[in-house]
Amino acid sequence: MTKTAFVFPGQGSQFTGMADAWLNDSAQADALFRRASEILDHDLKALVANGPQETLDQTQWTQPALLVTSVAAWRAWQEADAPLPDFLAGHSLGEYSALVCANALDFDEAVALVHKRGRYMQEAVPEGQGAMAAVLGLEDAAVEAVCQQAGEVVNQPGAVSPANYNSPGQVVISGTAAGVEKAAELAREAGARRVLPLAVSVPSHCQLMRPAAEKLAADLQAVTVRVPKIPVLHNVTADTADSPQAIRQLLAEQLYSPVRWTQTMHRLRDEGVDNVVECGPGKVLCGLFKRFDRKWPSASLNSPENIPEIHQQWSEA
């Protein structure tokens, strides 16, 4: 029997107009954006539709904007009476989208929560003091060794660490600006094919995010969390969680722990997942699945026009 996973994108997938196809087609998508705008006291619908991109790229707005767009795509899939997937997973912020779609988090509470999450992340590290870079062409263990060595060189153990294990041969590192710069230099010396600095304002998924995680953990205690109706794989463990409190803890830990996406793809493969659908804007995650296994069918649900095509592909598999 065919098994399918829906995966939800994180920061970096946002762009002005990313929800236009859903807003033009669905009254429910419009209602979701209007509700989110009320919660945030900010016109999120106008921001996503018209920009400016600089504001949309601010972490506190990027996160709710991506969550609402992804949930709008999911709700459209449901409205089409399409079958439910066997697993859900989300990359970084996308984990919140997955939990909303699995009915583990309430939409209203999730919108407010990810807005705070973005603000806490921005407040944790003054702009310019943190950095991230993508290391291409090195094994995971080599990247880990480079990060450890860089921390010793700058005399600050833990100054830089792997943030995203995105796919075999692609690891994003994160930490202090000095730590990342030194790790990038050492990675090139170790034979990395490329090291690409990322245009980010926040060094995500590293120890610098512990202050943000402490604030988020307090907020999570006040949020309703349920056991997901569809299994959700978490970034920290690449595994499911069996209780609301465990989910709260994993969401807090996620801020300063690496996203184990390669491990998540292995887990989905081990579970017998045949098809993958990226639910939300862009095709970043589809690209990672293609890097992992070129023969693994994947599709992007970023427009109502995709629904019949994906449904048919799924049915024929």
What does this structure look like?
This protein has 317 residues and is α/β, with parallel strands linked by helices. The chain is globular and about 55 Å long. A 5-stranded parallel β-sheet has the order 7-2-1-9-10, sandwiched between helices. The protein has a 5-stranded mixed β-sheet with strand order 6-3-5-4-8. The chain folds into 2 domains: 4-124 and 208-316, Malonyl-Coenzyme A Acyl Carrier Protein, domain 2; 130-200, Alpha-Beta Plaits (2-Layer Sandwich). The chain has helices at residues 20-25, 27-40, 44-50, 53-56, 59-79, 94-101, 107-124, 140-153, 177-189, 210-220, 244-254, 261-270, 284-292, 306-316; strands at 4-8, 87-90, 130-136, 160-167, 170-176, 194-197, 232-233, 259-260, 275-279, 298-301. The N and C termini lie close together (9 Å). It is built from 14 helices and 10 strands.
Can you describe this structure in just a few lines?
With 317 residues, this protein is of the alpha/beta class. It has helices at 20-25, 27-40, 44-50, 53-56, 59-79, 94-101, 107-124, 140-153, 177-189, 210-220, 244-254, 261-270, 284-292, 306-316, and strands at residues 4-8, 87-90, 130-136, 160-167, 170-176, 194-197, 232-233, 259-260, 275-279, 298-301. It is built from 14 helices and ten strands.
Topology (SSEs and partners):
Layout: E1 4-8, H1 20-25, H2 27-40, H3 44-50, H4 53-56, H5 59-79, E2 87-90, H6 94-101, H7 107-124, E3 130-136, H8 140-153, E4 160-167, E5 170-176, H9 177-189, E6 194-197, H10 210-220, E7 232-233, H11 244-254, E8 259-260, H12 261-270, E9 275-279, H13 284-292, E10 298-301, H14 306-316
Parallel strand pairs: 1-2, 1-9, 2-7, 4-8, 9-10
Antiparallel strand pairs: 3-5, 3-6, 4-5
Helix pairs in contact: 2-5, 2-7, 5-6, 5-7, 7-10, 8-9, 10-11
